[in-house]
Write a structure and sequence with these properties.
This protein is mainly α. The protein contains 14 helices and no strands. It is 76% helix and 0% strand. 48% of the residues are buried.
């Protein structure tokens, strides 16, 4: 697996032209997020207008319209939280590993959350979105910690060993999941809904339950931005600049684990957001990780909310789960990333 294809920053990038361009992109990102938020509360099995939404916000709307719009608030909030978590975690993973194909699933987090839910459903009677969330969260965190312990054992942290540890643990956990779900059909029925990834069917309790983990992970990510820039120059150069590669790498993996675990526990494993968003952000905003983390926090929710809106509109009156829609969107991004890697590995 390649480990040197994310280019290091070429400087502070603080020229007046560059700052103006970043300010313009920031305004553009905020506007796109605002449009995605409006679309998320406007569209569904029954669409409402922007005027209806404004009336609801001002308390002058029809009660039926108010009920429809307000019922979409929880999934919109979860879309923002999960999109931010997945996109920032992907940026951290690609920065820490210096691999443009890295994404949170490499840490075994999805497999850990899935295995925990399957075990809880099979032997502890867990059911419903809140139950699965509380079982998915420790499973994801434990899997992330195990991968870190296994990958860091011996002669120091190695990115390749971490990735291999994640692959091995994921394979073992997926075998466990298949064994349980094939032997217990009622567990499979519950698991298959969660594993696709969806924003619907959750309430604000789920949001507030995972919010502390997401907040800690995001604040840690913001603090690691300068360190990731130094790490992108290589371990030797980072040390010469006064940074500590092992601490930066460990902190980045910890933050990515917290963010990924929070998102996966809340809405299920959603693929490609953590892979596609960092590539788009890097192409538009540059290679400074301080900037990438901020813009990923805007682009991730925008992508996930728009994907959720598409899933609700194309199959009315039913809906296509957002995890399926993001897979269709993310596949082209993966192909583009692979093409960009050609000749650099």
């Amino acid at each position: 697996m390649a480990t040197t294809t994310v280019a290091p920053p070429s400087g502070a990038g603080t020229s007046r032209t560059g700052a103006a361009r970043l300010a313009f992109l920031l305004l553009l990102g905020l506007a796109a997020l605002a449009l995605a938020l409006c679309a998320s509360v406007m569209f569904g099995s029954r669409s409402t207008s922007l005027g209806d939404v404004i009336d609801v916000l001002t308390g002058t709307a029809d009660p039926n319209v108010t009920t429809i719009v307000e019922s979409r608030y929880p999934r919109t909030a979860l879309g923002v939280l999960a999109g931010l978590c997945l996109a920032v975690a992907g940026t951290l993973m690609q920065g820490v590993s210096r691999n443009p194909l890295a994404e949170p699933g490499l840490l075994g987090i999805n497999a850990g959350a899935s295995a925990s839910i399957v075990a809880a459903t099979a032997w502890f009677g867990a059911s419903g979105s809140t139950d699965t969330m509380w079982w998915a969260l420790p499973g994801a965190l434990i899997a992330g910690v195990l991968v870190h312990v296994i990958g860091s054992a011996g002669t120091g942290t190695s990115v390749v060993r971490l990735v291999l540890a994640g692959a091995v643990l994921s394979a073992v956990l997926m075998a466990f999941i298949q064994a349980v779900t094939l032997s217990k059909p009622q567990v499979f029925d519950s698991y298959r809904y969660w594993v696709v990834g969806a924003l619907g069917g959750r309430d604000f309790d789920v949001f507030w339950s995972v919010f502390p983990f997401a907040a800690v992970g995001f604040l840690l990510a913001l603090a690691l931005g300068p360190g990731l820039n130094a790490l992108a120059l290589g371990d030797a150069m980072a040390v010469s600049l006064g940074s500590h590669p092992a601490r930066i790498r460990g902190g980045g993996l910890l933050a990515a684990t917290l963010l990924s675990a929070a998102a996966t526990a809340a809405v299920g494993p959603i693929a490609f957001v953590g892979l596609a968003v960092p590539h788009v952000v890097r192409a538009l905003a540059g290679i400074d990780f301080r900037v990438q983390i901020v813009f990923s926090a805007l682009a991730g929710p925008t992508l996930l909310l728009l994907a959720d809106v598409v899933g609700r509109v194309v199959m009315r009156p039913t809906e296509l789960m957002v995890g399926v829609v993001t897979a269709f969107i993310g596949a082209p991004a993966l192909l583009i990333a692979v093409r960009r890697m050609r000749g650099t590995t």
